[in-house]
Specification:
- By secondary structure, the chain is mainly alpha-helical.
- The chain has two domains: 16-80, no CATH class; 86-128.
- The chain has five helices and two strands, in the order αββαααα.
- The protein has helices at residues 16-23, 53-70, 89-105, 112-122, 124-128, and strands spanning 33-37, 43-46.
- It has a two-stranded antiparallel ribbon with strand order 1-2.
- A hairpin with a 5-residue loop joins strand 1 and strand 2.
- Helix 3 (89-105) packs antiparallel against helix 4 (112-122).
- Residues 1-129 form the Myotubularin phosphatase domain.
- One of its GO terms (biological process) is phosphatidylinositol dephosphorylation.
- Belongs to the protein-tyrosine phosphatase family. Non-receptor class myotubularin subfamily.
- InterPro entries: Myotubularin (IPR030564), Myotubularin-like_Pase_dom (IPR010569), Prot-tyrosine_phosphatase-like (IPR029021).
């Protein structure tokens, strides 16, 4: 995938040929990417959706098993679909533009109550929280 870094971490129990094969199943070939880990062994792995709904369960299970085997405590994988609970990039950009406009066009001192309400309406603070 041209959007992934040249080097990245993958579970050691997942063979290179499996990664290559599975990569075609992900939208944009964006296979699982190990993004962050905690000293207790917890990790954040992100990946794109799998294109083929019929293959989704099999591929998802194979990758989750590889991640579990790579965990020092063999903890189960907890999955969360962030598309359902996070704003998309267009919403974030729109909120940022509203914030910029608010900071440029609305003097804080003159209309504090209105300014704070307008700030809340940008949703910027919700998104960065």
């Amino acid at each position: 995938s041209p959007s992934l870094p040249e080097y990245f971490v993958v579970p050691s129990s997942l063979a290179d040929q499996d990664l290559k094969l599975y990569s075609y199943s992900f939208i944009g070939r964006r296979m699982p990417l190990w993004s962050w880990n905690h000293p207790n062994g917890s990790a954040l792995v992100r990946m794109a959706n799998i294109k083929d709904v019929l293959q989704q369960r099999r591929i998802d299970q194979r990758i989750c098993n590889a991640i579990t085997r790579s965990h020092p405590l063999r903890s189960d994988v907890y999955k969360s679909d962030l598309d359902k609970c996070l704003p998309n990039i267009q919403e974030i950009q729109a909120a940022h533009n509203k914030l910029k406009q608010l900071c440029v066009n609305e003097p804080f001192e003159e209309t504090e109550e209105k300014w704070l309400s307008s700030l809340e309406n940008t949703h910027w603070l919700d998104y960065i929280r």
